[in-house]
Amino acid sequence: MSAVIESGRVAGLGRGLLVAESFGPTFQGEGPSVGQQALFIRLSRCNLHCPGCDTPETWDWSRYNPREVATRHSVEDLAAWVMSRPVARVVLTGGEPLLQQDQLVGLAVLLPGRRIEIETNGTIVPLPELVELVEAFNVSPKLAGFAAPGDRRINDRALRALASCGKARFKFVVQDESELDEVAALVDEFSLTDVWVMPEGTSSATVLAGMRKLADAVLEYGWNLSTRLHILIWEAERGR
């Protein structure tokens, strides 16, 4: 991982944010805020290349043309879009939003009264000024079975910074109960709290089956279990 990526800054992005899509009002579908009304801004670009990623259009240029699946928007225009809608919660997702965190600081400043969540893979140290402005980081470290070979899926410094900032909750996407030992090792190593386990799945049947399979074991570990509410309601429909 280059020093540019490590710091959470991507050279050459210029002014504004590269956005894959924005949508809402809808419901937050995952984690502690599940079921709450929210607006979503999905940012383009990611520093990981997970084969099972459900938003490959944010990074997989072997399948997508970046000029066709991302547009640049000023923070002022994005803030105006958010502030024109009577929804308190704003979820900044990706891709990996912290690749553009310099601009996210500017956006967050323009969203007074909004409750901002940032979805991140936990590989980038957040800027202190961004930590001050957001309500929560929904951190989803990638397990070995989900990440692409060669990706730096675990960044010790970034995970420790997020764990100590006081605003992080940790959500692990799990395919099989056997992976819970790997989750436990990360929880112990980095002293993670507010831990959530969520089954992988892009259909309601798969999500429900995964929750049923994982529920008892997650209870035994003392963690929380997350659904994917948007999948249960709308399946894999985009923009929901």
From TrEMBL:
Annotated [4Fe-4S] cluster binding sites: 46, 50, 53
Keywords associated with the record: 4Fe-4S, Iron, Iron-sulfur, Lyase, Magnesium, Metal-binding, Queuosine biosynthesis, S-adenosyl-L-methionine
EC number per UniProt: 4.3.99.3
Pathway: Purine metabolism; 7-cyano-7-deazaguanine biosynthesis
HAMAP family reported in the protein's UniProt record: QueE
Subunit record text: Homodimer.
Name the record gives this protein: 7-carboxy-7-deazaguanine synthase
Organism: Kitasatospora kifunensis
Gene that produces this protein: queE
